[in-house]
Design brief:
Four copies of one chain form a homotetramer. The first copy, chain A, is mainly β. Chain A is 11% helix and 39% strand. Chain A is built from three helices and 22 strands. In chain A, 60% of the residues are buried.
Chain lengths: 306, 306, 306, 306
C-alpha cells in the first residue's frame, strides 16, 4: 500500500488505451493534479489543449477485463482561487422557442474562499452581486479505458465513465468501474469547485485541482454501468441520450446490484425502488446525459445480510 | 375567509370544465376527502370507478383566465391504515432488453403507523420483510380545468397540473396554477402515503385521504407551467414526454420566474441556475413525465429585493 | 347505403363526445365540407375560431366501444384556390443552437391550379420564385371521440386519431379507428393542399375543403392504434412524443395486425418487418408526433391466405 | 485516375486513425472486398472477429481537415449467395409492455438469386415460406476517421459516418464526408443484400461484398454531417439518439446545404422543406439512430442557378 506522488507532464483528451504514466497496485494511494477543462494549471497558464484534459492513465496491476476497479476520492481540492464558468443556459435545456431569448456567450469568474468553504461570483456584474455558493469540489470527467480499442472524446461518457459531470462525484465518494482492458487505465480531470444539477450552462466553476485517491480491485463481477457510494447512498450512473435512456441504464443497473449483492429478487427490488428510489440529474448538456439512481443506505440496512 | 367542509358524493376521472361542487372565495379553507386511485374510500370500499378519481371541481370566485390560482396544502392525512401498491418496475424505466426479466404483476399491501410516522410493507413476503419507510403523504393528481373546453384523463398531466405524481407535493407546499377558465375549477385526488422518485412501479402506496387546503388568487400573471414552493425551495413543474422536454419546460418556467419576480436578466438567471439548480424526477411513468426544477431559497435570499 | 350531403354550421376545436350533427349508417357516404385550420371557409372568411376546427361529429349507427370504424376518403378537394402556410422551420426540428438563425414568422400564400394539379407559391418573393409542387390534398386532423369522456384539443393526437398531419392521409386511403364511444363520433378537418413530411413549418398549405367519405363498421377487433391502407401499402399510425415512442406504437400495432389478420407468428412478423418495413414521419411538430409503419401489399401477397 | 485492386488482409472494428492500407488520389477508383458483419468472407469462413469489421483505412492524398471527401459507390455486389439475419424485433422498437411477447433469438438464412435480382428466405420455416424481396445491396457501416484522435466502435455512428445502416446507401449513391484528419482515412464494411427501414431486427441480410468506389476531394467546405445524393434526391444524414435529435441534425444540415450551395435564405429554405421535404429512418437500432432528410432534385431544379 504505497502512496504515489505523480506530477503529470502531458494530458489526453480522449479516454483510451494510452501509454500508462504510472503503474500502481490495489490498495495504493495516488496524490496527483489535474488541469482545468480548458487545459490551465494552478497558475492559470494553459499548458495543454482544452477539452477536459485527463491526467493518466494509471495502470492498476492485476486488473483484467471483467474485474471491478474501485476508485475512491479521498481528497479533492482546487489548486487556485480563480474559477471560470459560462453564463448562458445551454440551448437544449430550455424550450426550443425560448432559445432566441438567451443572451450571447460570455465568461464569468469566481473566487474560492477556502476558509469560508465558499465560491463567490466575481464578475460579470449582475443583480446577483457576489453570489456565494458552498464550495463543493467534484471531478467532472474520469473513467477507465473503454473496450474494443476505442479512444473516446472526453466530451462524452459511457459505461467506462467519462464526462459524467455529476456534482455528487467529490471527496468521500467511491466509484466502481467495469474493467475493459488490462490495467484498467484510469484517467481523471475536469474538476469543478461547484456545479448545479445538470451542468446546464455547460460548465461548472472550472478549476485545476489536486486529488488524492485510492484504488482497489474486485476480481470478476464487473458491473454494466458505473456504481458508487457515499456515506448516505449507494448509486448507479447511467450515461446516454435521451434522459429516458440514461434513467433506464441507471435503474437497471441498480436492480442488478440489489439482486446480486443484496440477495433481493426482482419483485423485492421493484418494491424497494418503487417507494424508496431517488434520482439525480448528473448532466443534461454533454453528448451523453447522466442520470443517477440512488438508494439510501438507511433503507438498505433493513435488508438482512446475505 | 371561511372554512368549508365538503364531503364528495361523486368523482371525475377527467380534469375539465365539470359542474362545480362548491363555490369558494380567495382566502378560504376547504377540508375535504378523496378516494384512492382505485376509487376506494376510507373504509376500503370502492365507491367510484378507478383511475385517480378527483374530488371537485371547486369554483374559486373571481378567478379568470390569466390569473394565478394559489393552492396550499395545509394538511394531508391518509384516512385509513391500509395502502396498496404495485410490485413490478414499469417496463419503460428499465433497459428494453431487461423487460423480460421482470416478474408478473402482483399487489402489495402496506400498513400506516401514524404514531411512528411510518409506512410498513405487509405483504408479499420477500427478503424486504416489513420494510419501513417514513410516512410522507402527497397528492399525485390535482390541477385546474385545462383551456379550450378540454376534459383530459387523470392519467396524464400538462400545464394545468394533473397526474404529476411528484412526491414533493405534500403538506406545506404551495402550488401556483395558471387559470384557464372562470372559477379555475380545482380538482384533487390520488393520495400516496409514500412514493419514490419517478413513481417507477406505477403507483405510490395508494390511500384515501383527508386534505385541508386554502386557495388564493393573484390577478393576471399566470405562469406557463405550475410553480410551487416549500420552506426550502421554489420550484417549477414541467410535464411532458420525454424527460428532456419536461426538463425544458421546467427550466424555462424557472427562468421566467427569476426574471419576472426576482428582477434577474437571463444571464444572471443562467449563472444562478448553472451553479445552483436542483432537479427532481416527479414521475417517469405516466403518459406525461414530470421534472421539477428547484432553486434553494437560501440562495435566492442573496438577491436584493426588487 | 345513403349519400348524405351535410353542410356544417358549427365546428369543434376538441375531439370529444359532442352532440352529433348527423346520424349515418355503415355503408353510407357523406359529402361535406371543412373550414381550414384558421377557421376560414371557401370564400376565405373566418367563420369560426382557429385551431383545426372539426366538422361533425357524425354518429355511426351500431358502432360500439371495441368496434372498428372504417373511414374511407373517397374524394378530397380544396374549395378555394388560395392556400396559406407558415415560412419558418419549427424550433424543435433544428439543432437547438441553430434556432437563433431562424427568421421571424411571416405568412406565405399559395395558389392551387386544379387543371395542372399543382400548388404554386405566390408570395413571399424569394429565390424560390413561384415554386410549384404537385397538388396532394390530405386531411390533417380527424378521428373518433376518445375514451373516458375526454375532449382533447385538435392540436394533438392519440389512439383516437386527431391531428396526425400525415401527408399520406388523402383521397383513396382507408383508416381503421378503434371505437371508444357509442356511435364512434367521427370528426374531420384541417385540409392541406400539399405538405412535406413532418409538417416541419407547423402547417401544410392550409385550405378549406370538400370531402366525400364512406364509413363502415367491423364489429369487435378494435386496434390499439389507427390502421390504414392505400393501393400499395397497409400502414399503422403511432402518435406520441418522442418519435421513438411513436415508432414503438406504430411498429407494435403492425405486429398485431400481421399476427391477427395475416396469421403470422411474431418471428415471421419480425422477419418480414426487419427486411421489408417502411417508415414515414407523419408530423414532428404537434404535441404528439406521428410515425407511420408501412408494409407493401406486394410483399404481403406472398403470405398464404389464412 | 488509377484503378486500384485492394485485397484486405486485416480489418478494424473501430473507425479511427489506423495505419492506412493504401494511398489513393482524388479521382481514383478502388475495387475491394469486405467481410460481413460477423467477420465472414465470401466462402463463409470467419476470418476476423465480428462487429462490422472494416476494410481500410484508405488514405486520400491531399485530404486535410475541413475538406470534403467525396465517396461514390460505383458498384456493390454480394460475394456469396448465402446471407444471414436475425429474426426478432429489437426490444427498443416495440412498446415496452410488448417486449415480453417477443420470441427467443434465432438466426435466419437467405439465398441471393443474382439473375432474378432477389433475396429469398431459406429458413426458418414460417408462414412466410420462401419470402422473396428485391436484391438491394447497401453498405451498413463506412466513414472517415473521427476528430481528436478518437477510435470509435463500428457499432455506432456520428458526423464521421459509421454504422448508419441506411438502406439508401447502395450502388449509385455519392456521400460527402467532412474530413477530420490528414488523408481522411476511409473505412468501409457491413454490406446487406437487403434491409428494411430502421434495421429493426438489428441486422439486414448480412453478406460479404465486393465494392467499387471512387473518391474525390472538395477543398474546404466540410459539412457538419454527412451529405449524399442519388439520381432523384439530395439528402443529409443525422446520427444521434433519440430520433428527434437525429432529425434535428439532418434537417439543420439540409438548411445549410440549401443556403450555402443553392443560395436560399433560411425563409426560402424553410418554405421549400416545409412543403417538400421527405424523411427516412436509416436505423433505429444502433447506439446512434440515423434519420435521412431528403429533397427531390426535381424540386431543386426550380431554383435558379447561383
Amino acid at each position: 500500500m504505497h502512496t504515489h506522488h505523480f506530477q503529470p507532464t502531458h494530458y489526453h483528451t480522449t479516454i483510451g488505451s494510452h501509454e500508462p504514466v504510472l503503474h500502481i497496485s490495489p490498495g495504493d494511494t495516488v496524490i496527483t493534479t489535474a488541469v482545468d477543462a480548458a487545459g490551465c494549471d494552478a497558475t492559470g497558464n494553459q499548458v495543454t489543449p482544452p477539452g477536459n484534459p485527463q491526467t493518466g492513465p494509471f495502470f492498476v496491476e492485476g486488473a483484467e477485463p471483467g474485474d471491478v476497479l474501485v476508485f475512491r476520492i479521498e481528497a479533492l481540492r482546487p489548486t487556485r482561487v480563480a474559477g471560470f464558468s459560462a453564463t448562458v443556459l445551454a440551448e437544449n435545456v430550455v424550450d426550443p422557442d425560448a432559445v432566441r431569448t438567451l443572451p450571447e456567450p460570455q465568461g464569468s469568474s469566481w473566487q474560492i474562499d477556502f476558509d469560508a468553504g465558499a465560491v463567490q461570483l466575481a464578475r460579470p456584474r449582475t443583480r446577483l452581486g457576489h453570489l456565494t455558493l458552498p464550495l463543493a469540489p467534484m471531478l467532472g470527467c474520469f473513467g477507465v479505458a473503454p473496450p474494443r480499442g476505442q479512444a473516446i472524446s472526453t466530451a462524452t461518457s459511457g459505461a467506462y465513465g467519462g464526462n459524467m459531470d455529476y456534482r455528487g462525484l467529490g471527496q468521500g465518494v467511491t466509484v466502481y468501474f467495469p474493467v475493459f482492458v488490462p490495467g484498467a487505465l484510469l484517467h481523471l480531470g475536469d474538476a469543478h469547485a461547484v456545479q448545479g444539477d445538470g451542468e446546464i450552462v455547460g460548465t461548472g466553476v472550472e478549476v485545476s485541482c489536486e486529488v488524492r485517491f485510492t484504488v482497489d480491485l474486485i476480481k470478476g463481477r464487473a458491473p454494466s454501468w458505473p456504481r458508487g457510494e457515499n456515506s448516505e447512498y449507494i448509486f448507479t450512473l447511467g450515461n446516454a441520450r435521451p434522459l429516458d435512456q440514461a434513467l433506464q441504464h441507471a435503474t437497471t443497473e441498480m436492480t442488478r446490484w440489489l439482486v446480486d449483492e443484496y440477495g433481493l429478487d426482482l419483485r423485492a427490488a421493484s418494491i424497494l425502488l418503487g417507494q424508496g428510489v431517488r434520482y439525480e440529474v448528473g448532466n443534461v448538456y454533454d453528448p451523453a446525459y447522466t442520470i443517477v439512481c440512488k438508494v439510501p443506505k438507511k433503507v438498505l440496512a433493513q435488508i438482512p445480510v446475505v
